[in-house]
Amino acid sequence: MNGTKTVTRVLVTGGAGFIGSHYVRTLLGPDGPDRTAVTVLDKLTYAGNPANLDPVRDHPGLTFVHGDVCDRELVGKLVSEHDQIVHFAAESHVDRSLADADAFVRTNVLGTQTLLDAALRNRVDTFVQISTDEVYGSLESGSWTEEEPVRPNSPYAATKASADLIALACHRTHGLDVRVTRCSNNYGHHHFPEKLIPLFITRLLDGGRVPLYGDGSHVRDWLHIDDHVRGIELVRTRGRAGTIYNIGGGTELSNKELTGLLLAACGADWSSVDHVEDRKGHDRRYSVDCSRIRAELGYRPAKDFTTGLAETVAWYRENRSWWEPLLDRAVL
Ligand code: NAD
Questions:
Q1: What local confidence, expressed as pLDDT, does residue 329 receive?
Q2: DSSP secondary structure string, 234-264?
Q3: Under CATH, to which class is 8-186+225-249+284-302 assigned?
């Protein structure tokens, strides 16, 4: 031992998207871990935006590769050059999966399998599969623990559940160090303006109208991206192989309650809301029990929702140049 610590090389898929880019900015930011190099592999679909990585673009530890997680040759080469994989890349918008699930099955299932296959061949140290609470289905009361079987309802959730099962099977069968995170609904800056919070904010800031599905009573738990990224880092660095970790934000709101808060934050009122037909198969409520990550890794959400939402609205007010060019690509 000469006391020299080697660099940990982390392959981050989907690192130009909403959460993946925040993860990369955090890893390479002032409070990130020492001696960590990051390669982003991203296809730059409608949801991928190279500008999301601008703050770390010139960081010597960052390499950006434009490519597809389904490309076996490229993935094989990249994985052989890395120690760990944090897998965010996915088709992520439920409404799009209702219209056409092809890309969801391809990227979310086949893409994950392609990465796992390369991870096995190259015996990477750790594979973190970023998943979602939507794999559990819908529940009226209480919260899901990680022991809950998956019962996905939307095509999106079904592809994420499939990927989780394949990843966990790789651990059980081949001993690959796979860790799965299942988070609740994320919010924060750099969120593509077709998901509820950024869609409503950008429309309301423009004096437009917003669509509320059904009776608005669907309940989601809201998780700030700072808290989510901290949870993922705890799992990557200290989690257990073969283990699922729920990550929640601790703020459950109905869509109607959330709409009221967004209207107030943007200086609008209920006359700006269109009550539209409910989404097909719309899950009523999601809620994750975070006892495991709290007890094992000391995770606690730190961002107060009122503060986080105000900061998010302020960011969209101040960063029109980021979101205005994206409106053409959004399915609204
Ligand atoms: P996003 O849609 O903002 O970003 C996805 C990224 O993946 C984009 O940069 C896109 O270009 C890239 N990508 C898509 N297909 C690819 C392919 N075939 N090859 C390489 N790159 C590809 O998504 P997000 O909101 O940042 O979500 C990231 C992960 O977190 C996803 O796995 C998603 O399922 C999960 N998740 C998100 C939420 C949420 O609230 N946003 C909640 C739970 C789980």
A1: 84
A2: HHHHHPPTTEEEEE--SEEEEHHHHHHHHHH
A3: alpha beta
Instruction: Tell the residue number behind the tokens 């509320």, with chain if given.
Output: 212
Positions marked catalytic = 133-134, 156
288 lines ligand 1 (CB under 6 A): no
Q: Best substitution site from 26, 40, 88, 191 to test ligand 1's pocket, by max atoms within 8 Å of Cβ?
A: 88
- Is residue 163 within 8 A of residue 141, CB to CB? The reply is no
Neighbours of 291 (CB within 10 A): 12
Question: What spacing in Å lies between the alpha carbon of 160 and ligand 1's midpoint?
Answer: 11
Q: Is the CB of 48 under 6 A from ligand 1?
A: yes
Q: How far is the CA of 33 from the centre of ligand 1 (A)?
A: 23
Q: How far apart are the first and last CA of the chain?
A: 58
Amino acid, res. 27 = L
Tokens read off for 242: 């073969």
Question: How far apart (Å, rounded) are the C-alpha atoms in residues 311 and 212?
Answer: 23
The SS3 assignment for 131 reads strand
Report residue 296 as tokens: 């094992």
- pLDDT grade for 328, boundaries at 50, 70 and 90: confident
Residue of 92, 166, 229 best suited for mutating to test ligand 1, as the one with most atoms within 8 Å of CB: 92
Rg (CA), the chain: 19
Nearest-atom index, ligand 1, CA of 16: 9
pLDDT of residue 143: 97
Question: Where are the chain's structural domains?
Answer: 8-186+225-249+284-302
| Ligand 1 centroid distance, CA of 255 (Å) | 22
pLDDT confidence of residue 332: 59
- The confidence band for 279, taking pLDDT boundaries of 50, 70 and 90, is confident
**DSSP 8-state code for residue 52:** G
Instruction: Give the C-alpha separation, 132 to 228, whole Å.
Output: 11
Which tokens go with 312?
Answer: 């998010």
What pLDDT, in 10s, does the model give residues 61-95?
999 999 999 999 999 999 999 999 999 999 999 99
